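Q: I'm teaching a short session on how sequence maps to structure, and I want students to see two examples side by side rather than one. Could you give me a first protein with its sequence written out and its structure tokens following it? Keep the formatting plain so it prints cleanly on a handout.
A: Of course. Example one:
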Amino acid sequence: MANHKSAEKRARQSIKRKARNSQKKAMVKTFEKNLIKGLEAKSKDLPELLKVYTQKAMAATSKGALRKETVSRKIGRLSARVHQALNK
């Protein structure tokens, strides 16, 4: 429990930020799942799915919800899989 007015405000802010960050993370995970499902189904719109996933993931990174290194690694691996699927 916060004892000072400023500590109470920081507690409120952290609750709001946690909710916002978890919402962004969930959104990115949803787009990642859609991309993986598209890969498994050999969908024709893989480039578009990859583009949307990349945009959403980098937006979450710029807002501080996800780490840049993690997102870059995932984008690299998924784009390699997409290019491999398109060249088959």
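Q: Perfect. Now a second example for contrast.
A: Example two:
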Amino acid sequence: MTRRLLAYLIAAGVFVLDRVTKLVIDRLVPLWDSHEVIPGFFNIVHTENAAAAFSLFAGAAPGWRRFFLIGSSTAAAVLLSVLLWRDGARAVGSRMVSIGMALILGGAVGNLYDRVIPGTVTDFLELYLGSFRWPAFNVADSAISIGAGLILLDLLLARRAPKKG
């Protein structure tokens, strides 16, 4: 299997998993409801977010905010698609970078779908410890975060690797 095919399969898998989980939450968990899964640590919730991560741009005018978020998500998805389409070894570096970019692409397209079709992003995973609550997130957000982490890890490992030659 080529690196390109693997990357697109990962991105498609993230998108499908994101859509399926959001559909399940939309159908089975009433909006703004919360179900404790691991007491003191993890809840399944149902929230709708018209802003970006961590409610970034929440105070912006809805029309401008939606245009900006759809535009930036589309640009990111196109850029990642082009980079992954090129010869993987030359264009994006290591396998870890390819997988990271594929995860980001799948997550970006998952949240982009929500911004275009229903107009809001469904978030449903909530982590907390005591009074500290991490903002609710979803599979697409997780994939984007893990993908960015893989790319950063690759950068750190490449800096530490002994130089050959």
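Q: What should students look for in example two?
A: Point them to this: The mean pLDDT is 89. Also worth mentioning: Strands lie at 34-38, 42-49, 121-129, 132-133.
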